[in-house]
Amino acid sequence: MLSNRYRIGGAMMHFHCFLLVSLLVPALTAFGQTDPAERYRANRAPLRPNPYIELPLGAIKPQGWLKEMLVRQKNGATGHLDKLYPLVMNERNGWLGGDGDQWERGPYWIDGLLPLAYILNDKELIAKAQPWVEWAIKSQTPDGYFGPSQDYPGEPGIQRDNSRDWWPKMVMLKVLKQYYSATNDPRVIKLMTGYFRYQLQELPSKPLDHWTFWAKYRGGDNLMVVYWLYNITGDKFLLELADLLYKQTFNYDNAFLNTDLLSTTGSIHCVNLAQGMKTPAIYYQHHPEQKYLSALQKGYADLRKYNGMAHGLYGGDEALHGNNPTQGSELCSAVEMMFSLESTLEITGDVAYADKLEKIAFNALPAQTSDDYMERQYFQQANQIMATRHIRNFDQNHGGTDLAFGLLTGYPCCTSNMHQGWPKFTQNLWYATADKGIAALVYSPSEVQAVVANGTPVKVKEETNYPFSETIKFTLQMENGKSASFPFHLRIPGWCKKATIRINGRNFQEAEGNRIVKIARGWTSGDVLELLLPMHVSTERWYENSMSVERGPLTFALKIGEETKKVTNELDSVRYGASYYEVRPTTPWNYGVFEMQESRLSESYKVEDSGKVSDFPWNLENAPIRMKTKARRIPSWQIYNEMTGPVPFSMIDHIAPGPEEEIILVPYGCTELRISQFPVAGRK
C-alpha cells in the first residue's frame, strides 16, 4: 500500500476534523437535510439566471463502467502520482511549502485527485489531497496573496521560477471551489475574498500576462471562480474584478467573430484554446449579450471546419495545426475542452455542447490512456498506425516521444492534468434546475441525490450501458414513499432522429433530437422513467473528403492488430521517463470504405452487439459492439515517417483496385491503433 499522506509542517493538524466534515456533508445532502437554497446557489443579481445549477461534489455517484474508470484512476496514476512522479509531486513541491516545482503541475494533479476522492468518498484519497488544500489556505499573506512566492535556480525536470505567476493560482482556485462544494469549509471563502481583493489591487500594474502569457489566455478560469464567490458573498467588488479580468484576458469573442484565428495554422496554443472556449459563456452571465453566444457557436463551427477530427478534438500539437488526421491532439486539450463544454452547458442549456462533450469523453479520452491508467499519450492521431518514438510532423516534438505510451512521454503537463477528465465528467452528468427540478443532460450509469420542488429529497438511479446501448432507465426514490411535483429534464441528442420516453412501462412521449424535454408531473417513489435513443449508422466528411463512420455518440475505427513493446529509456529518462511502450500494427490498415446513400448504411454496416458491457469496455478485447462492412485496400496508401502517408483524396468516380474484403470496426475509444477517417474506395 502506498503512503496516503504527506507530513509537512502543520498540514495534517486539522485533517481529522475536516475528514469528518467531508464524509458527513454528502450524507447530510442525501435526503435533503440542508436548505436547497443554500446547497444549490443560483446566480445572484445582476448575474443572469442559468438554467442549470451544479450539484454538490459527492451528490453524483458513478456506477457500472464509469465507476470502474474512476477506480482504475484511484489504483493507477491519479491515486499514486506522488510515488510515480516524486521529482515534482513529493514534499519539495512549492504548493506544499518546498523548494521544488513552484508552478502548475501540483495544482493540476489535485484538480483531478480531489474530485475523484470525494466522488468515491475514499478516505485515503481525501487524506492525500488534504495537505495541498491546507498549505494553500495557510499560505495566504496579510495582503491577500496565496501560494508559492519564492523562485529558485533551475533544476532538470522541474519548474522553479515564475512562482508568483497568476496562472497556477487559477488551478488551485478551481481545487478550492471543489473542496468547498464537498465540505463547506469557510476558510475557502475567506481566502478567496482576500485573494480577489489582492488581484483587484495588483492587476492594473501587474496584468495577467505580467509573468507569463498563459494567464492571459486562461483568465476564464479565474473569472469563473470570481462569479462563483459573488453568488455566495454578494461582494460588489467582485463584479469590478470580473470586468477587469475579462478585459485583460485574450478576447475570444472578437477572435471567433472577426478574425481568422481558427483558420490559421499556429495561431494559438491548443490547450489555451481548449480552456478559453468557455470564456465568452462565463462572461455572458454578467453581460448577457447575444454576441457572446454567437461567438461560441461560430468558434466551434470554425474549429470543426478547419481543424476538426473524427474523435471530437482538433489538430493541435501544440499550436493549432489543421485537420489532417495524422496531426496530434494533446491530452490536456481533451480534458480542458471537456471542462469548457461542461461549464458552457450549465450556463446555456444548449444540447450541442452536451453532444460535443460526449463525443470527446467516449472517443478521444479513453483512447489516450492505458487500461490501468498508468501511461498516456501526449498526442493522439485520428489515423494512428504506429505509436512509436519518432520525429513526426508536429509543431512540437519532445524527443520523438509524443505518441509513445508512458508516464512522462511528450511533456509532463498531461501527466499532471489528465486526472480531471472522468471525475468532472461524472460531476456534470446531473444538474439542479432553475425551475426546482432535476436534469439528466449527459448520460452514463450513475446515481444522484438531490433536492427538488420545495425541499423534497430524491434519489435517482440511472441504469444504462450507454454509449454502447440505446436504453436509459431512471428509477426514482423518495423518502418514506413520498410524492412530489417537479420537472425532470432530459436531453435528446442532436444525432437522435426520434426518441421515445416511457413512464412506468407506458409510452409517454416521442421527441425529435437536438432538444431538452421537460417532464413536469407528480412523481411517486418507485416511478420508472425510460429513455430510448435509437442509434443509426451515419457518416461524416473530413480532411480530403475522408469519411468517418458514426453510431450515436461513438465514432468507429478500423480494428488493427496490435503488438506492444516496452522500451527501457536510457537516453533521457529524467525528461521522458525510465520506460515507455510502443505499439505497432500486425494487420493491414490501408483500407478505403464505400460511399452510399444513407438508406443503405444499415445493410452495409452490420452491427454486432455482444449484449453485455464489461466493467472496463475500452479495449479491443472487451469492445461490446462492433461493425462488419466491406472495404478495399488502397495499395498506394503506405507508411510514411511511421504514420499513414497522405490520405488519398476521396473522388466520387475513384474506384480502388483489388477485391473487396470484410473489415471490422470497433469504437474509437477501444483502440490504440486505428483508422477513423477513411478514404472512399468507390460508390455502392
Question: Would you give an account of this structure?
Answer:
With about 675 residues, the protein is of the alpha+beta class. The chain contains 22 helices and 28 strands. Strands 16, 17, 18, 21, 22, 23, 26 and 28 form an eight-stranded mixed β-sheet that branches. Helix 11 runs antiparallel to helix 12 and helix 14 runs parallel beside helix 17. The radius of gyration is 25 Å and the shape is globular. The N terminus is likely disordered.
Structural topology:
Elements: H1 15-30, H2 36-39, E1 52-53, E2 60-62, H3 64-75, H4 77-84, H5 86-89, H6 105-120, H7 123-138, H8 166-183, H9 186-202, H10 214-217, H11 219-233, H12 237-248, H13 252-258, H14 270-276, H15 279-284, H16 290-307, E3 329-330, H17 331-348, H18 351-367, E4 379-380, E5 383-384, H19 413-417, H20 421-427, E6 430-433, E7 438-440, E8 446-452, E9 456-464, E10 471-478, E11 483-492, E12 498-503, E13 506-512, E14 515-524, E15 528-532, E16 537-541, E17 547-551, E18 554-558, E19 562-568, H21 573-576, E20 579-585, E21 591-595, H22 601-604, E22 606-609, E23 625-633, E24 639-640, E25 643-644, E26 661-667, E27 674-675, E28 680-683
Parallel strand pairs: 7-11, 21-28
Antiparallel strand pairs: 1-6, 2-8, 3-4, 5-27, 6-7, 8-9, 9-10, 10-15, 11-14, 12-13, 12-15, 16-17, 17-18, 18-26, 19-20, 21-23, 22-23, 23-26, 24-25
